[in-house]
Design brief:
Blueprint lengths: L14 H21 L3 H4 L1 E2 L2 E4 L7 E4 L15 E2 L9 E4 L9 H5 L5 E6 L5 E10 L6 E7 L2 E6 L11
Parallel strand pairs: 7-8
Antiparallel strand pairs: 1-4, 2-3, 5-9, 6-7, 8-9
């Protein structure tokens, strides 16, 4: 039996090959870090999670519809969201979102309150107020565009960075 040579198990690679392999590995690591494809796999909850990759907002969760003309409390549970700064927007559905209904949407006689709690019941962020057409704290300001409208809780940064 011939003597065992340690180098017989190594695939010979040129310096250019090692450099190309290193660059390719670094590029792949950068893409995976930026893309984070596992975010959708980690999310579990009542809403539908989506990752828009390179568009803003990158992450969104659409929860079941809420009727603003019916009093009550709604509870939605979720976990596994990416650790990003988030905003809460309540989108208006259907024909009510058209610009001609802007006045009626800013004067709805409702109070909207939203609280986000962690798994231990601690309030992570809270927003409350009435729909309005003004950019002032303590309101849900109406933002609208062609065929779409939504209420954004002000101040916009009502939730600091949090991890769920």
């Amino acid at each position: 039996m011939p003597p065992h040579d340690e180098r017989t198990n190594i695939l010979p690679v040129s310096k250019k090959g090692k450099f190309a392999f290193t660059i390719l590995g670094a590029l792949l690591l950068l893409i995976l870090t930026t893309w984070s494809p596992w975010s959708a796999l980690l999310y579990h909850g009542d809403g539908k999670f989506s990752d828009e990759l390179f568009f803003y907002p990158r992450y969104s969760v659409r929860f079941p519809e809420i009727q603003l003309n019916e009093p009550g409390e709604r509870h939605f549970r979720f976990r596994g969201m990416p650790n990003e700064e988030m905003s809460l927007i309540l989108y208006v559905k259907g024909d009510r979102a058209k610009r001609i209904n802007r006045q009626s949407l800013t004067s709805l006689p409702v109070a909207i309150e939203a609280s986000l709690t962690d798994g231990k019941g601690n309030v992570v962020c809270h927003a409350s107020g009435r729909p309005a057409d003004a950019n002032t704290d303590g309101v849900w300001v109406l933002m609208s565009g062609p065929g779409e409208a939504g209420y954004l809780a002000l101040p916009v940064q009502f939730c600091s960075r949090f991890k769920i």
